[in-house]
Amino acid sequence: LPQSTIIHNELKLHLFESDHQSGAWCKDPLQASDKIYYMPWTPYRTDTLTEYSSKEDFVAGRPTTTYKLPHRVDGTGFVVYDGALFFNKERTRNIVKFDLRTRIKSGEAIIANANYHDTSPYRWGGKSDIDLAVDENGLWVIYATEQNNGRIVISQLNPYTLRVEGTWDTAYDKRSASNAFMICGILYVVKSVYEDDDNEATGNKIDYIYNTELSKDGFLDIPFPNSYQYIAAVDYNPRDNLLYVWNNYHVVKYSLDFGALDNRLGKSSFLIFHIHEMALKDLKV
Fold this sequence. Notes:
There is one protein chain. The chain is mostly beta strands. The protein contains one helix and 21 strands. It has a single domain (14-276), classed as Lipocalin, CATH 2.40.128. Strands 1, 18, 19, 20 and 21 form a five-stranded antiparallel beta sheet that branches. A hairpin with a 6-residue loop joins β11 and β12. The longest helix is centred in the first third of the chain and has 6 residues, at 55-60.
């Protein structure tokens, strides 16, 4: 993030309503193109990534190409980073790297001790135990272990070797989280209401952060938009500073305002203090 006090973006963009309740979508933060990568998620049937050349083609349902993956995918935690897709191989604690240019699997790594396949998913389920994330510092994996009592663990991965370069144990129970994402080495955990909840006492908010640079955490209360009450994916893109969200069939973007972080987690850091849900008209793909 630039060294300024506030980033403010008032764009409003709700791209369309999908045929799938859950899935994920993203851009490659290391490429300047407008390409969008899209993967609806269906249990035991998810093995295809779809690419669109632009937002207009995405909304109109005009794919550029599709990629048949060498393995099926668990969860909605995939990312695209520097021309490669990274995803959790079904029924394993493994991360697979798939080169989009050559269409060949170029790596696979075990995330040691990671719970998988609905052992420690996010609150909505969906085999979302292992969640990949990208930010200004690179590639991350968010998961839980029995050694950390089912609480969230963060590891930084080298995107070229898939080696783990650092691991941090947090105090947040992963099954209580709706989703999580990384910005500038800081984990943000989202807690939200789902449509079948008995009550809305949990609220919709970011209620926990963990700063990997300082190995410090904090609890907080930042409102998090949740118009459709079934958040299945939240991914940050460090190129445009937007969140790419999948919420109950709806594919949406959120813009962020940043302000200086309080002294608990370091004066040089920045903290989200406001999130805008971005909306356009509903369109079917």
